[in-house]
Amino acid sequence: MIKKLILTLVLCVGMALLLGLPVVADSTTSMSVSNQTVSPNETFDMDVYVVLDTDSRGAQFDLLFNCMLLTCNSVTEGDFYNLGGTQDTFWKEPIIDNQGNGQIIGAACVVISPSIPVSGSGVLATISFTAEALGISELELCNVVVGDADGNSVEVIITSGSITVGLEGDLNGDGRVNILDMIIVGIQWGQTSSADLNNDGVVNILDSIIIGANWTG
Ligand SMILES: [Ca+2]
Ligand SMILES: [Ca+2]
User: Fold this and answer.
1) Residues 126-139 pLDDT 10s
2) What SS3 class is residue 181?
3) In a domain, 73, yes or no
4) CA of 175 to the centre of ligand 1 (A)
5) Which bound ligand lies closest to the C-alpha atom of 188?
6) 131 and 44 in one domain?
7) What is the average pLDDT value for the chain, to the nearest integer?
8) H helices then E strands: how many in the chain?
9) How confident is the model at residue 164, as a pLDDT?
10) Pair (112, 174) in one structural domain
11) Do 86 and 177 belong together in one domain?
């Protein structure tokens, strides 16, 4: 019985290779930012979070945001690669563009020899923003590169986020929490998107409840 199962598995893999089907890498390396709701004029922090299932010596990212809604004040190194300040790293300050496009360009962190590579999870960087106007700004991670202990690129799952400036639950940014926001939850039901108000990775009834609790009509 076991031999049959193994033979079947081998045949399936062989067929997949013969047919040129993509082989999906079993990667759990990820980089993400979350969704937050903030008030106008509020200054707040957003962490860039990493999860690494392999030893790594460095990572870099860019991030796009809506500079009509947000001003980026600073991007500072997190405690992931420096192990809470106990080992040496080089932190490359990114270029911050609060005009025109709204970009953070070239944030990077690398451990410096003889420091050890790291794995697990933690904060790669912390971004300080100030909310300037009502609305929703997508936070799009891009140009993400994570290197393993030998400098090889690692496959990374990227999860971008968003900042809602205004009332919690006001998904369309019109200053009210009502049926229009509930409709957005309905449209995005089951997805990972900006309507994921409680940041649990899926849009569902729990997000609807948050809208109900903040209902203005
Ligand atoms: Ca609304
Ligand atoms: Ca949710």
Assistant:
1) 999 999 988 889 99
2) helix
3) yes
4) 6
5) 2
6) yes
7) 87
8) 3, 11
9) 86
10) no
11) no
Say how many Å lie between the CA of residue 95 and the centre of ligand 2.
33
83 within some domain: yes
DSSP 96: E
Q: How many CB atoms lie within 10 A of CB 81?
A: 27
Q: Are residues 145 and 72 in the same domain?
A: yes
For 191-216, the pLDDT digits (tens) are 988 899 998 989 999 999 999 999 99
Distance 215 CA to ligand 1 centre (A): 9
6 assigned to some structural domain: no
Ligand 1 center from residue 71 Cα (angstroms): 23
Q: Residue 79: which domain range?
A: 30-166
Q: Show the beta-strand stretches assigned E in the chain.
A: 30-32, 35-38, 43-64, 70-77, 89-92, 95-97, 103-111, 118-131, 135-148, 157-159, 161-165
pTM, to two decimals: 0.71
Predicted local confidence at residue 27, as pLDDT: 61
pLDDT of residue 22: 38
User: Looking at the structure, do residues 214 and 130 belong to the same domain, yes or no?
Assistant: no
41: CA distance to ligand 1 center in Å?
A: 19
What is the number of domains present in the chain? 2
| 7 located within any domain | no
Same domain assignment for residues 104 and 182: no
For residue 206, the domain's CATH number is 1.10.1330.10
Are 147 and 154 in contact by the 8 Å Cβ rule? The answer is yes
pLDDT at residue 9 above 90?
Answer: no
Read off the pLDDT band of 26 (50, 70, 90): low
Q: How far is the CA of 187 from the centre of ligand 2 (A)?
A: 13
